[in-house]
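The pair is listed for reference:
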Amino acid sequence: MMRIPERTLIYDRDISGHHLDYLQFLVEYLKKMPETVRSQFVFVLHEGAKARFGKDEKYVQFRYIPGKQLEAFMALTSVLRRASAEMDYLTSLVNEYNANRIIFMHIDAFQYEVGRGAIRRLGVKLSGLLFLPFRKYYEDGSTFKAKVRRDLRGLRKGLQLTWMLRNPNLEKIFFLNDKQGVKEYNQRFGQRFDFLPDPIEVGQMAEQSVEILKDEYGVEATRRVFLIYGHLSARKNVSNILEGLKQISAEERQKMCFLICGEPEKGYENTLFSAIQEAEKNYPEIQFVKHFRFFDPHSTNEVFKIVDVVLVPYINFYSSSNILGLAAKYSKPLIASNLGVMEGLVTHYKLGVTVPPNRPEAIGEAMQRYLHLNQIDIDGKPYLQDHSAEVFCQKLLF
């Protein structure tokens, strides 16, 4: 018989990128649980999440953060002050729901708050996903300036973590897809870190044919499609990707389509649009197809079905991404950064090639390679078997 869990708040103010997808995994998993179990969980989410989860409200409890409260959070430009305001809000909900536990779907910004005396005295059990742990050998140290920047970042990250771990009620900190990182952190800081597989839903597949989907998305049928997908921020390294096109001849570029899908990050729009417009001007022989909007799971599956190569040479980013799972699901190769967790996963599972993200010529050469290959599918099954949504949900919730 399943033990009834403690009253738990699951908190995520963000609805961009992967956030809604991870929450969807948890909701679907809880919907299969007895009412006595799922009633113990309350999802505290941005009010914009209601469009995604409204149909699930008869099964699972949701508390949507109202617009005025969200505006008050975002008016605080300091990350620490904003986290403090969010923690005050959560504390009020702990009392309202008589909750015994909080799961942070993104704990990075709350490290100072978790270590504060007032939160320790609250007595609530805490856990969460840490998306940006510091791993020295993953970061750039190629120049003296880079080494200094890396060492200062490592010092800051270490102090933040040590402060957070002062709270004895902090039970688990999860790293996505990084078993080695978990091992190293447990050795250095104590046994409170755990591995969490970055999940992928293998059941839902795009049903329409590639030909029909290409027509719907405006992609010319004969072109090789390179995808830039997700929350479109500076991390996506779009400028260096487009700069890499210089490495490819005009004749070869005629075969290419760039499919750019996702929501631009606020404040990054001008940089992104300018880079794309410049590339369209310089390379009129390439087809550029842009869909700047939120992509739900249905649309996401459609996009990954029609592409040929997935571009993830992320810059200044050393963690994992759920894009690996999506590419594996549809057997599409990746051009990924040669730094961080993604490099290890792409290499281990043979999911594509890795390149230095700060070298446009290396990115261009990798794209050129995939233009020359007739058969470019990869075998994503081993990766999918090791990254099931069920394991993700079990470890995080129970």
